[in-house]
Amino acid sequence: MKFVTYALPFIFTAVLSGCNSGDRGCFGLCSKKDDSQAQPAPSVDRSCYADSTLGDEQELTYAITAPSTQQRLRFHSIASADIDNLRPVLIWVTGRTWTLDNEFNDVPDIARSLAREIGAHLALLQYRDAATSDWPESIADTHTAIRYLKTQAGTLNIDVNRFVLAGDRAGAHLASLAATTLGIQEFLGDDHMNESSRVSGAILLSGLYDFAAVTADSEAIAARCNDAVPAISSAPIRELLDCATPAAGASPLEACDANDLTQASTTFHVSSDDPPMLLWHGTADCDYPPAQSEHLDQVLSDRSVEHVLNLIAGADSRLEGLTATSIEIELAGVLECE
How does pLDDT run across 148-193, given as a tens digit for each residue? Predict the structure, then answer.
């Protein structure tokens, strides 16, 4: 596994674990990362929060959009010994693409496992299908759902200061975009505007972040992928952005509006005040080019946004071998103890 690391502030780990910001022993780590020598994997001390399981499930409507369509999320509350205390929430944006497969049952097991391990409620987010909606409605839904959960924080026992946004594949794209576009009015939606959609951090798996580069990135990996250019680089993006069908022999995204390709790219929106981000991508991914995570890594570095990029050797978009515990350890591993 290759690590490209910019030390995350302690607040990210505190956000996830529910520990106080002064409790640096929460994950049992007290060694500074040093690139000059190999470091032992940190152990995880869960004594600072109660063992948790996902309990009751509720299906909640976060908005009603034309024509009278309910936009839903599925909320899994934490059942634990300290349930009277406010808990963080892990919001997982679903979907392999931006179309019909963004169903609740298309959520990786790691989402539920991670919520249990970090003691967080889990909210599974659906958004309007790109095949039947207009851009940028899917990202507006993402912002709206975050704000809705903040309006319900008291009822749902959520700590409004501990919202973590996550997603895989198309969900990672929308999660990263929501984390970086608080200032783009047309992306925000109209409901629950008394709250902010700012989050404390983002966890991104196998995403697309730079649409202007996705065609070249896809063609670059075709040789090692049995000469197959990833399908994600053409039809799904055209559907998301309402692009015309390109002429025969033309580049797959040539008929897309250049401004839409730019505005839909997380790399265009990154700024220095964005929240910390953790990225994972498999080097053998033939569906979502790993160079996309490297592009985002470079821009996050240029803008001095705290983040970690993990490239998993030999893994495809499913990121086999990545576990909730390894994510939790990574959160600990980026700490710098005093």
Answer: 999 999 999 999 988 999 999 999 999 999 999 999 999 999 999 9
Q: CATH number of the domain that 190 lies in?
A: 3.40.50.1820
Structure tokens, 289: 């080019």
* pLDDT one-digit tens code per residue, 232-279: 777 899 999 999 988 988 888 999 999 999 999 999 999 999 999 999
In a domain, residue 36? The reply is no
37 belongs to a structural domain: no
Alpha helices for 1-127 (secondary structure H): 10-17, 109-118
Helix spans in the chain (H): 10-17, 109-118, 137-151, 153-156, 170-180, 185-188, 211-220, 235-240, 258-263, 266-269, 291-302, 324-333
Using only C-alpha atoms, the chain has a radius of gyration, in whole angstroms, of 19
CA-to-CA distance for 129 and 167, rounded, in angstroms? Answer: 16
Burial of 2 (0-12, 13-18, 19+ CB in 10 A): exposed
Q: In sequence order, what are the beta bridge partners of 4?
A: 309
Phi, psi of 167 (to 5 degrees): 180, 160
| Number of DSSP helices (H) and strands (E) in the chain, helices first | 12, 9
- Kindly tell me the sign of the dihedral angle through the C-alpha atoms of 129, 131, 137, 142: positive
Among candidate residues 59, 15, 61, 58, the one with its CA nearest the CA of residue 192 = 61
Place of tokens 């033939």: 286
Tell me how far apart the alpha carbons of residues 11 and 266 are, in angstroms, rounded to a whole number. 23
Which is it for the CA torsion 260, 106, 1, 332, positive or negative?
positive
For residues 291 and 322, is the Cβ–Cβ distance under 8 A? no
pLDDT tier at 297, thresholds 50, 70, 90? very high
Total number of domains in the chain: 1
In terms of Cα–Cα distance, which of 333, 297, 288, 292 is closest to 315?
Answer: 288
The answer as to whether 41 is a domain residue is no
Element spanning 125, H or E: strand 121-125
